[in-house]
Design goal:
Length: 271
C-alpha cells in the first residue's frame, strides 16, 4: 500500500524524477534532479544530482535545458515533476486550450522581461494567481518578480519543444499515453504545508540544517520514502535547499499519481 492507503499499482510509472527548476544564467548548477523508483511499499530515492551532470549539459541555461529535454525524451516510460508554473491565470490567457497557450507562448512573449511586463499590464498592475495557486498555497503568482523567468523559460524552452514534437504527455491537461514520459507541475513548499512539516529550511544556519533533516525524516515516517544514508547527508548539506526540493518534487509527483481524481480536478484550475 502507498500514501494514505492507496495501492501503489495506481501509479503506473516505475521511474519518477523530481526537478528543482531554475532559469538562472548558470542553471546547470542550480537545477537539481532526484531519481526514484516506485517500490511495493513506496518511493526509493536513488540519486540526486545537478543538471550540469546530464549528458551534453553544462552550466549555461540554453545548453542545460537542451540536455534536460533530451534526457526526458530518452527516459521513456517515467514521470517528471517540475516546480515551475505550467500556465497563467485564466484572465491572462486568450487561447481556447492549454496546448495552444503553450505553443503560441514564444510568439506572444519575445523575452522574459516582456512576459513580466505584459502580465502585469494585463492584470492592471496586480499579481494574479491561478485557482490552483490559491488552493495549494503556492508562494507566488506565476509572473512574480522571483518566479517569472522560471515560468517563461520553463514554458518556452521545456514544455513548448516537447509538446510541439509530441514527445511527452503533460498531466492532467493531456491524456496519459503509456509509451511517453509524463510531466506534472509540482510545488515542494505546498506539499510541505499540506503534510504539516513546513518550516524555513533554506540557509546555512543550524536551524535550517535541522529543518532539512526533519523534512526527510517526516517523509520517511510516512512509510512512503527511503533515501540512502550518504545521499541523505548530501541533500541535507545543500544549504540552498535545491537538492531537497528535488526530492520533495519526486515525492509530490508520486503522491499525485496516486490520486487521479485530484489530477482531474487540477485540470479545471490550471489556467
Amino acid at each position: 500500500m502507498g500514501v494514505e492507503g492507496v495501492p501503489i499499482g495506481t501509479v503506473k510509472r516505475h521511474r519518477i524524477y523530481g526537478v528543482d527548476f531554475s532559469a538562472a544564467a548558470d542553471a546547470g548548477k542550480k537545477i537539481w534532479i532526484a531519481s526514484a523508483t516506485v517500490e511495493e511499499w513506496g518511493l526509493r530515492i536513488e540519486d540526486c544530482c545537478r543538471a550540469e551532470n546530464l549528458k551534453g549539459s553544462g552550466r549555461d541555461l540554453n545548453r542545460c535545458l537542451a540536455a534536460l529535454r533530451n534526457f526526458i525524451e530518452r527516459e521513456g516510460v517515467c514521470a517528471f515533476g517540475f516546480d515551475f508554473p505550467f500556465g497563467l491565470p485564466r484572465s491572462l490567457v486568450n487561447t481556447d486550450s492549454w496546448e495552444d497557450f503553450v505553443l503560441s507562448f514564444p510568439q506572444r512573449y519575445s523575452s522574459p522581461e516582456e512576459f513580466h511586463k505584459s502580465c502585469l499590464s494585463d492584470a492592471g498592475g496586480s499579481e494574479l494567481r491561478r485557482v490552483t495557486d490559491v488552493e495549494s498555497q503556492t508562494p507566488f503568482s506565476p509572473y512574480n518578480l522571483r518566479l517569472y523567468r522560471q515560468t517563461y523559460f520553463g514554458i518556452r524552452d521545456l514544455l513548448g519543444p516537447l509538446l510541439r514534437n509530441q514527445l511527452v504527455c503533460v498531466l492532467p491537461m493531456q491524456r496519459p499515453l503509456s509509451v511517453k514520459p509524463w510531466l506534472l507541475e509540482v510545488c515542494p513548499a505546498s506539499t510541505l504545508k499540506r503534510i504539516g512539516v513546513y518550516s524555513p529550511y533554506k540557509g546555512r544556519k543550524e536551524k535550517h540544517h535541522v529543518a532539512r533533516a526533519h523534512i526527510l525524516e517526516s517523509l520517511e515516517e510516512m512509510s512512503s520514502l527511503s533515501i540512502p544514508t550518504a545521499l541523505r547527508r548530501e541533500v541535507i548539506g545543500d544549504h540552498h535547499g535545491d537538492a531537497i526540493d528535488s526530492v520533495i518534487a519526486a515525492f509530490t509527483t508520486f503522491r499525485a499519481l496516486l490520486n487521479p481524481a485530484g489530477l482531474a480536478s487540477y485540470y479545471k484550475q490550471c489556467l
